[in-house]
Amino acid sequence: MPCQAALRAAFGFIRGFFMEHTQYRPAEVARAPSGLMDGLQRWLPKLVVAPTVILIGIGIYGYMLWTGVLSFTNSSFLPSYEFIGLDQYAKLMESERWLVASRNLAIFGGLFIASCLLIGVVLAIFLDQRIRQEGAIRTIYLYPMALSMIVTGTVWRWILNPSLGLEKLMHDWGWTSFSFDWLVDSDFAIYTIVMAAVWQASGFVMALFLAGLRGVDSSIMRAARVDGASLPTIYWKIILPSLRPVFFSSVMVLAHIAIKSFDLVMAMTSGGPGYSTDLPAVFMYAHTFTRGQMGLGSASAMLMLGAILALLVPYLYSELRGKRHD
Amino acid sequence: MNTFKRNLTALAVSAVLMPTAAVQAGEVEVLHWWTAGGEAKAAAALKEMMEEQGHTWKDFAVAGGGGEAAMTVLKTRAVSGNPPAAAQIKGLDIREWAKLGFLTSLDSVAESESWDQLIPPTISDVMKYEGEYVAVPVNVHRVNWLWVNPQVMEDVGVEIPTTLDEFFEVADKLKAEGYIPLAHGGQPWQDATVFDAVALAELGPDNYRKAFVDHDMSVINSNKMEEVFSQFAKVMSYVDDNAPGRDWNTATGMVIRGEAAMQIMGDWAKGEFTAAGLTPGEDYLCAPAPGTEGQFTFNVDSFAMFKLSEEEGIKAQEDLVRTILEPEFQTLFNQNKGSIPVRTDMDMSAFDTCAQASMDTFKSSADDGGLVPSFSHGLATTSYIQGQIFDVVTNFVNSNNPDPVKTTDQLAAAIQSAM
After folding, report:
1. Do A184 and B383 lie within an 8 Å CB cutoff?
2. What ipTM score was computed for the predicted complex, to two decimals?
3. Residue A252 is part of a domain; what is its CATH number?
4. Which domain, by its residues, includes A207?
5. Can you give the CATH number for the domain in which B162 is found?
6. Would you tell me which residues 343-382 of chain B have a C-beta closer than 8 angstroms to some C-beta of chain A?
7. How far apart are CA B78 and CA B89, in angstroms?
8. Most Cβ neighbours (<10 Å): which of A46, A188, A257, B252?
9. Interface test with A, best of B383, B385, B410, B419 (most A CBs within 10 A)
10. Number of A:B CB contacts under 8 A?
């Protein structure tokens, strides 16, 4: 019983506290009786946000900094603090495998972003023609996004494996001259990764563009049609240019998916055949955690960070500058 | 105040007395990655033996075949000052851990049990840091084995090849009959395992050791190494086109089903044959990899012992080390794992024919210098140099026009950059 009373009193106090402060602005509250309350009020928002800020500060920026420091040391399989300048970066630049990984990122990133945008936009425009069963079709295209990259990678590995998937199926059906062995060919394996990634992400781009298209004022379209413009011209000259922000967000999202890509490669090829499908993230993991070359791995991580910043900074700059003009 | 003081004294006294009272029963925490099949059974046997001695076994199993995940966990634990009593650490990594001062000396046990007489010096070298034992070997795997499906060989009418030239002849005949001559999985470590065997066959044990243990450039960057690469390319040309990414046990399955005739793989492959209900010597054969008769590339699993502060823990640790080398455990463990005991004084009658053959070669090669550490399994060189060699080898295998001369230069450059 006394316990309940205490609880009720506590709730009463809390309710009173919040009621009081929602009704009056802090400046109007009498200073003398509740100096403590006033201080708490002023600090409360900061206190509430503080744990998150601290966690992000340590968990993301702190470790980023630490990785940066390690990239200048000779850390092997445990961190060490013997500084050796830019040696790790020099070693990285001489490493054949890193060059393969970088080249793969360029191929993968370029093709992945371009294909996703193209397929996504075309699908969105088709879906925007008020077709029947649009909801169902939209869900079907968007569904791959619900799978994790590991699942996508495993499924595509099975489909593209010549002795297991598509090629075997065609051979079993009697088309024995059919051959599709890109997955096991070191010159072409990287393109199979692009295929799987595009399959996974183009539905997402479609959804973004569809939302954008729905936001376009239909009177613009009617006006253009009155002026005698054909449908392709309307889309190409008027509607797509007005979707520039959607285009930019898509590129941002796709670009960072491309740079951090790790699980898809691990599931599909583990970087093979040989190391022909290595991406920088795979390189970083292998050297930092399995080969005991933490310094070299950190250096590669810093270069990846640099690549992301090279994309992000101009974007942020244009965004912020745009705001100031408004 | 008075009672507080009295309590404190009591506490201090009991703290002094406790260890002597409880010295028999300590807790031993063991990090390992034996989580599946015969390996898990082997680990359970060790646990039972420790519990019989009154110790508590704290299992710290981290799954993931090659132990990469386990190593990451171990690093975190060690850096935060809370390492387990024992951890499964292999090959040259033992030296790295010892160099950082994490490992404890096992010399008192080693002396009383006279390990130096039991274990061949080539292997005990790997277990020592600056002359002191810091790890205990558990088993010996032979890597240079050739696994053969006798049915297929009989069908085509060929014998098991004993040299590389014979291998090429046999493989041509097998290929003509529509069999895959060599089952293989295109993963870097498997490529390196075959390369390991070819290099031993071509270079011989002395030059093998010079190249992969001492990294002597006069061997690495030589015509002999070019010859190794061209022979290796020839061996790999008998592998089917769909090998990239295939797991080793899938490749073993191809031999079991008779799609492929042979596989070059360590003796852990025996587990796959056993699981399929086959008998060694009848349903499948084991022979030395072509050209490596009488030679033995070893891959040794071992436990490194970390420095502990509590007396009970140290006692338990010593008992663990002693138990691991006991003949009873060695037999039980190695029968489950497919390897052979690390002690050369053991009765092998309980083992199968492949293990017996392995032991015979192990003993004879330990005397005549044919016993070499396997670089492809981390026994010969640091993980970084090993990784560099893997890169060169696997790139060579997967290249569309492999060039032995250029690759030899690349190998030399890669090893040099890592040293």
Report:
1. no
2. 0.77
3. 1.10.3720.10
4. 2-30+95-324
5. 3.40.190.10
6. 382
7. 13
8. B252
9. B383
10. 90
